[in-house]
Design brief:
Blueprint: E1 12-15, E2 32-35, E3 43-45, H1 46-49, E4 54-55, E5 79-81, H2 82-97, E6 100-106, H3 111-122, H4 130-133, E7 159-166, E8 171-172, E9 192-193, E10 198-199, H5 214-229, E11 232-235, E12 238-244
Parallel strand pairs: 4-6
Antiparallel strand pairs: 1-2, 3-5, 6-7, 7-8, 7-12, 9-10, 11-12
Length: about 260
């Protein structure tokens, strides 16, 4: 078991006996979960390291798929591990030279926030935000399709949800879909091949025939390629979601709340 320095409280191990469902952004290879109860010593305020980022922390407000502030978000700040923040600074510097800034929707996410998502998903009658985030789905399938899970890579501290802001137009770059849209339209390979950057127009995965344009696909690739150049790995189902490949806490799910450090 790896031991990380400067942790103020002891770790305890919880062995998972298939009690956790498979998750689209959960830990990929381990059945051991380590909890660092309240230690944030290896984390930083993202804006201290990347001053050019714009924050739009969706889970602090009510415009998100739940429709209310999420547990664990005390203030609208973004926290990341030091190494992830340093890598994101390199991404930001690259994109600033191209005329863009990064807009952050979410970064570190405490376990209590994930627990809030799970409770909400279990309340199938609560569909307040369905029209905005999952109009093509019955809420009862969100667990089955891994849109809601009991573990999240965000809780390990080196995952970030983000988009691009165009400094010339002073608007968000058009990505052809909103953050946290539950559906194949959010997949990086929707209407194109992210490995080659080729737009194909193939929208066969969309249940209602939605489509994104060549420009919208190209915009997604600008963000994706910048993140990949600086050590982040993409998620197969969300164009906005990236995790530092060499994340420092691959087996640790933190619980401290989101507030300035």
């Amino acid at each position: 078991m790896r031991v990380f320095g400067r942790l103020s409280l002891f770790f305890f191990m919880v062995i998972s006996l298939s009690c956790f469902i498979s998750c689209r952004d959960s830990s990929p290879s381990t059945s051991v979960t380590l909890y660092a109860e309240s230690d944030s010593s290896q984390f930083v305020n993202l804006t201290d390291v990347v001053p050019d980022v714009i924050l739009e922390i969706r889970y602090f407000g009510s415009y998100n798929f739940v429709g209310t502030r999420i547990d664990g978000y005390e203030l609208p700040v973004a926290l990341l591990t030091r190494v992830a923040a340093d890598s994101l600074r390199a991404v930001s510097d690259d994109l600033c030279r191209m005329g863009y800034r990064l807009k952050i929707y979410d970064a570190y996410r405490p376990q209590k926030a994930v627990d809030h998502f799970v409770r909400w998903a279990s309340q199938v009658s609560d569909t307040l935000m369905k029209i905005y985030f999952y109009p093509d789905l019955d809420k009862s399938v969100l667990f089955k399709l891994d849109y809601i899970c009991e573990k999240s890579g965000h809780t390990r501290g080196s995952t970030v949800d983000l988009t691009l802001f165009d400094m010339r137009t002073e608007r968000d770059v058009d990505m052809g879909g909103t953050f946290d849209w539950f559906g194949p339209e959010s997949h990086p390979d929707f209407c194109g091949n992210p490995d080659t950057g080729e737009y194909t127009g193939d929208n066969s995965a969309s249940p209602t025939g939605r489509k994104i344009t060549p420009e919208q696909f190209a915009n997604r690739m600008i963000l994706r390629n910048a993140m990949l150049r600086h050590g982040f790995s993409p998620m197969h189902s969300e164009w906005w979601h990236f995790t530092l490949t060499d994340e420092p806490f691959p087996d640790t799910y933190f619980t401290f709340t989101v507030k300035p450090l």
